[in-house]
Amino acid sequence: MVICSRVLLRKYGDFIDNLRLFTKGGSGGMGYPRLGGEGGKGGDVWVVAHNKMTLKQLKDKYPQKRFVAGEGANSRVSALKGSKGKDCEIPVPLGISITDENGKIIGELNKEKDRILVAEGGLGGKLLTNFLPLKGQKRVIHLDLKLIADIGLVGFPNAGKSSLLSKISHAKPAIADYAFTTLKPELGKIMYNDFKQISVADLPGLIEGAHMNKGMGHKFLKHIERTKQLLFVVDVSGFQLSSQTQYRTAFETILLLSKELELYREELQTKPALLAVNKMDLPDAQDKFHVLMNQLQNPKDFLHLFEKTMIPERTVEFQHIIPISAVTGEGIGELKNCIRKSLDEHTNQENDAYHKKQLLNLRISNTISYSELPSKNAVTSARIDIT
Description:
The chain is of the alpha/beta class. It is built from 7 helices and 14 strands.
């Protein structure tokens, strides 16, 4: 077991995106039968979201991973109503999903100061319980982090995602000339002249079979779920993981990336997407880019050339396709503008949809209210005088 943990630490660095915790609500306080006094309720255990918190910090600060709330005070002559036990708060980062031991979702925390009750304190002793206190709730919970970012970079290893992130943001990811440069998610922010900020997540590179948890599989794919849009990054020259694996052209790479997203979770393919075709500084890059554009514009003319297993049910429609070089900086300015334009358009569409829904609800509400009003000829009250 020790060897296994060392391998995982070396493989994923010090990034932690899931934790298993023991939680227990405080026991209630004793009642006072002779005077009818009630014991205080036990404290509750809450999970609370904080902006500057990480799961690694949580694990380092609480290595035992046990969180127990305080006990309620006993009833006594000087204080017949016992005070409530002290609550216990577990600080976690934003983007946390909480499940119980059976995998049932307890809730999600996406905003600063969001909180969820995970273990309730026991009742204090009272007449109903024969003045005996109840024990607090015990619960084992799982914290699962899914990064929240505006843009998620999607690509096979060595497509140049880390280089691109360092070029468009202030992030300093590790960059090297081997396939698996990114072993843990990296977050960066694109800064614009008007102080607008857009967050970008560079996630570990996919490999074929990632939906079956091969490579970093689910460790990568779950993080794209909360990104607003996807930015596919492909090498214009294609991709080959090793000498033992098959070479894939840029077009095949896009098909395979789309297929992996589809097989993991179909909804991911409905996210707005952009395509950055990287390494345009290489020889023959322009010719290869023209070939790729022809294939993307007329996909049906080429799909019959590939195995059915690698063709997605729904091909991704890119809002923008930008040729770039993360090395020379070619196309980076245009890419940043396209990212912002795409996000702004998406936000406007969401706002329009929200206002239309609000207007529809208002009309329905007014229609119901109008239909409930009595008509002019209706008899609102009846009085019969018999003389």
